[in-house]
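> @MW can you paste both from yesterday?
MW: sure, first one:
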Amino acid sequence: MSVPKARDNRKEPRAGLCFAEVVIPNKKGLHARASAQFVRCASGFSARVRVTREGHTVGGTSIMGLMMLAAGQGHTILIEAEGQEARAALEALIKLVESGFGEDD
């Protein structure tokens, strides 16, 4: 199944805050292993990361929170990053998600 990429909304409405919508491309979606990779990546930056799907927002450093979003293949999530390394965190997380979390299927 081919999944279209979401529009690029990387904007900075106020200093230190940036965000982007991305589409989950991998078949298993944002499952436990993918969520753990996301948390590991988000935790490596001096930035507060939040993820939203369909009005539900969770912290980007909570594996359980990310899994509770039930973001499957083709679903769009909004990633927000705020802080000193917000831009770098957002770019790394976009790359991780768009790579399908390194999964082959």
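MW: second:
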Amino acid sequence: MPIIKNGFELRSLEDWELRAGPKSHEQWVDDRSAKEAARAWLGLDGSELPVEVQKALASHAAFSSVREWVAEPEAKLSFDSFPGEPRNSDLVVYAKDTSGEFLVAVEAKADEPFGETVPDALTSALERYVKNTRSNGVTRIQQLAVALLGPRQDGEMTLKDIRYQLLTATAGALCEAERRGLDRAVLLIHEFVTDKTSDEKHDANAGDLNCFVARLSHGAVTSVQPEYLYGPFTVPGAPLLSTKVNLFVGKATRNLRRR
């Protein structure tokens, strides 16, 4: 199935790097997420989803065998009306099974972290606001928290435990699904375990994902296992969403270690 960027079908690693590769050539290396994600999704002939992704989808009764799909790397997914660059999803897959069309927003990770926490992001946003009162960063964070998480219940993870990147990735997936009239959106962490990655960092990422899903599910799911999807989760929605989109979160892991 085609992987397309700006009207060009990507058939090789060279195509992918040219059309959708990282800004820095130093990031396009074996055993790191950008190149390994491209290699995994191009596959042997680019006709099938990566095996680990197929397994994750097959783990949930809400999904059946994918009949067709098309993907876009470095897809821009806006989730609010504020000016500025929308967030980039590493890959967005538009797929169809027996239940209809759905969307998969892929975040590729070797052992790169999920970035700053919500409090750190809020601090940076406040600093930008102090410098320029037209900055919308604080309001953006408020809207994300309200739309995706809602009020905290007793015993739940606090916002200080949540990684901001997971909020924006989720919002991007849900809002793109709503724009396309889809009722299923998947946030999929595509993890690559390689000779250049650290088990300690993989564990830290797993912990961050678990914290996020625990808060998202109000404690119903506390651990995300590889090759599994969890959900559907229903988020509050407003002010970012006006219709219900069923959210699923999962992880697919590819082990590339040679030693």
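> thanks! The chain has a mean pLDDT of 96.
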